[in-house]
Amino acid sequence: MQTSFTPEQLRDPDMRESNRILRTCVHCGFCTATCPTFVLLGDELDSPRGRIYLIKDMLESGRPATPEVVTHIDRCLSCLSCMTTCPSGVHYMHLVDHARRHIEETYRRPLPERLLRRLLSLLLPYPGRFRAALGGARLGRMLAALVPGTSMTAERLRAMFRLAPSALPAPSPMQRPQVHRAEGKRRGRVALLTGCAQQVLAPSINEATIRLLTRMGVEVVVTHGQGCCGALDHHMGHHAPAMRLARANIAAWSAEMEDGGEGLDAVVVNASGCGTMVKDYGFLFREEPAPWAERAAKVAAIAMDVSEALERFGYAPTREPPGLTVAYHAACSLQHGQKITALPKDLLKRAGFAVKEPAEAHLCCGSAGTYNLLQPEIAGKLRERKLGHLERTHADLIATGNIGCLTQLTGGALPVVHTVELLDWMAGGPEPGAVAQARRARREAMAEQGAR
């Protein structure tokens, strides 16, 4: 693709990178076949190729974003399926992130949307605030059907209330800053990103990760000062808040890695959306003054999805195979963002589960961070499409490696659980609630067949 950025524009490092990415694109259109929004909507401007043309024109011209550009960029899930498909290696993720930042800097959104985005930015990255907000949202859930109107604002309000859980688990003391000592001889030492929304919605995921790693001889550090990875703000184009959150994590983990700390073999992340973000810290901080660029690069270099950490330290089950079939939902941020595809399925098989993969496994479920709140209609269609494929596997339950996907897919015919909770159970941990639910459903189905 030919570009015509001026020398002055190219002095900006983000513009230089976007220019390089744009010039990589050969217009082939392979990306359209695997783009969820193009598959649903059939509009070229809702495909990666169409968005690339819009972004190119916007950035080259230097003009403020237009309503048309904002509409089609906002509809992008950042699922990164296009990056898996692209034969030319177009780094769409960095390009669309630059576009979102430009939009936030040059476009004034309608007041209700500005308020909603600001609210999400103020609540979701902070577990205490998020937990308090969900207390009120539970009441709103009962009133969701009474929200009037067909406007986007009304749809978003109803989506927020629908997604609010009916009950919240108690905060887990295991997630507080501390060192969880390895059982037996220490074989490694890792920091665990405990996250933000996940701490509130499903602390059992962090608990399972800590139990499993410590049983394997790995010391797990929950560091002071760490928090949200910054992805939620980053993908809304809120650059400064995202960098502030990322900087806090880098500082916390660097304190363990540098002189005076005990060192780290890895930064383990059990929410794949966060993992994709942390692994990109080196790029995000590449132009930052010392020591931040070097620190960020070191953190990114040792960041691992929990499945990678389990493989590295030699995961092995201790229980007999449970006789359950798992439908594995590949989170986009794991399969497309981190290029981890076979490993979680291999670990589940090693643990004794029969594993099935649904049709269209490459397509997003519609969660995508805050997407299911900001684009509820498209997200809802993707959810139903994904659940249909998962249920047609006739599995007992669904396993996935991302809290966003888990939340999005909950409420269908099959219970949903994080992969690490199943692996922890099969290595001596407690039975996850989703497994008990699956066993109960199986018994009921067998009893119904017997009654016939």
Task: Write up what this structure looks like.
The chain is of the alpha/beta class. It folds into four domains: 9-106, Orthogonal Bundle (Fumarate Reductase Iron-sulfur Protein, Chain B, domain 2); 113-163, no CATH class; 173-311; 317-451, Rossmann fold, CATH 3.40.50. 53% of the residues lie in helices and 8% in strands. It is built from 24 helices and nine strands. The strands form two sheets. It has a five-stranded mixed β-sheet with strand order 1-3-2-4-5. Helix 22 links the parallel strand 8 and strand 9 (416-418). Helix 3 packs across helix 6 (92-106), helix 8 packs across helix 9 and helix 11 packs across helix 23. The chain starts with 12 loop residues before the first helix and ends with a helix. 48% of the residues are buried.
Strand content: 5-15%
How many domain modules?
4
Biggest β-sheet, characterized?
A: 5 strands, mixed
Please bin the fraction of helical residues: 40-55%
Q: Which strand order does the major sheet show?
A: 1-3-2-4-5
- Which residue ranges are poorly predicted, with pLDDT under 50 across at least 5 consecutive positions? none
Number of helices: 24
- Give the terminus-to-terminus CA distance: 65 Å
Give the strand tally. Answer: 9
Cα shape: globular
CA-based gyration radius: 22 Å
Class of secondary structure makeup: alpha/beta
Mean pLDDT: 94
Structure summarized in a few sentences:
Helix content is about 55%, strand content about 10%. The protein is α/β, with parallel strands linked by helices and about 450 residues long. The chain is globular, with a radius of gyration of 22 Å.
